[in-house]
């Protein structure tokens, strides 16, 4: 994990360095690239504007260019120049020029004699008139006097109005008699440049601005005003008395592609993109200046936006990286936790498997022990049963021998009595024999009952019959111990849910124990009572013996627990009885009577009586 984290760190550092490099590259080259792009755009627009301005200016001048030659060809003009002092011809000429000037919407038209004096002019009747002025210093005059059409732009020395001059010689029979001059106004064109998005200027070959949408730039020079330049300008008096000055400009280039010009005005420096076109015919250069501040601002904004986007991308990237790092960390933690859990589960599983194996072994051992115990128990039970059977057989043989002896005596004496004819006495003997046989039959029935298998069916059992059977069995024992059994079965008949033989066995056991308890005592009375208690029937066997000591009370129902001497008790009587009663769904408990002696309570479910018919 540490390794992953470290490599992630290095990746972040690498990305950070990349970002810084990219940001620097954008800041340095992006700005310049964007500026170049915006200047390219601007230059193409400026180029269009420049072409348009050239076309307008050119068209405007072309309209007037042929007109001086046309007027020079006028006969009246020629006539006047032949006789320059003729006042009539002058007046006529003046009117003619004024009329044409008005029609052509030119600024001024005037005619000069070869010495340069103006003799007629369209503004002859104006306060400021050219008449009498000498313009021989103007190049347009000199050119015309040399027989060529002349053209010149200048500030009027008389009118102080800027204009463009076209001139033509007036030739009569090969000699030049004078010069016709047309001056056109350039101010309307200049006015159309004002307030435009671009600055349009026109400057002369010396670099002095002659036309400009910005009046403050007029007569300003884009080049240093050297004495040669000033001398050349003074010669033609192009700018009359106007004050010439150098404009605070610096020239430059942007990436060798765009000509830039900086002009500082009232402390504020403005940078312009410059495109210029020289108008050879007109003798000037027209130039369009575009303020680069908007393009630079756009470039700056674009660069800033690019930087911002880069910053945002970097921020987004960083956040993404952080999220991924956190996620990776969490996943790593989860993986560790899972592994730890799996390890613990494996450990626990191994522990459990071990415990399980031990338990299985233990269970197997216990089962074997239990099996062994059962076997031992059943062996012992068998032994107990056999012992009981032995006891019973002894008791029965004693019981049978007595009546059999009596039967023998009665039969023998009956034979003698019959021989002597004492039939009535013999009959009496026979009746006694019959009674004794009945008793023996009863004993034999009891024996049969014991021989029966214990899995007799449970059902309604009449308590009187069971008690009757019990009495027959215990009678001998009671007599031997000289004990008395006091029976109180309450209101009868009492029916209980049990098996008759086994219930007899239980009662025999309880009564036998009671006899054992009272055998050596003076009061040898045993109570056998039965009562209905709701849906139960409760029977009690109470003696007046020593009772059950509390120390052994819990153990008397255990198999083979006995306090009687060897050969006297097997310790099975109460255990067998307890199990039999449980089989009946009843309860057997031992208490000590408050007046002394043990009291065994047998609680059985009451059963519905069985009618005689149903029984048959
Ligand atoms: P056993 O009679 O062979 O000893 P039992 O299971 O019938 O076996 O009785 C177990 C023991 O319970 C007796 O040894 C005796 O200590 C005690 N016991 C049973 N009945 C009485 C009784 N009526 N009075 C006092 N103790 C009794």
Structural write-up:
A hairpin with a 5-residue loop joins strand 6 and strand 7. With 616 residues, the chain is of the alpha+beta class. The two termini are 94 Å apart. A six-stranded antiparallel beta sheet has the order 7-6-13-12-11-10. The chain has a five-stranded antiparallel beta sheet with strand order 2-1-5-4-3. The longest helix is centred in the middle third of the chain and has 127 residues. The chain is rod-shaped, with a radius of gyration of 78 Å. Helix 1 runs antiparallel to helix 8, helix 10 runs parallel beside helix 11 and helix 11 packs antiparallel against helix 13. The chain has four domains: 119 residues, PAS domain (Beta-Lactamase), CATH 3.30.450; 96 residues, 2-Layer Sandwich (Beta-Lactamase); 61 residues; 161 residues, Histidine kinase-like ATPase, C-terminal domain (Heat Shock Protein 90, 2-Layer Sandwich). The chain binds adenosine-5'-diphosphate. Adenosine-5'-diphosphate (ADP) binds next to helix 11 and helix 13.
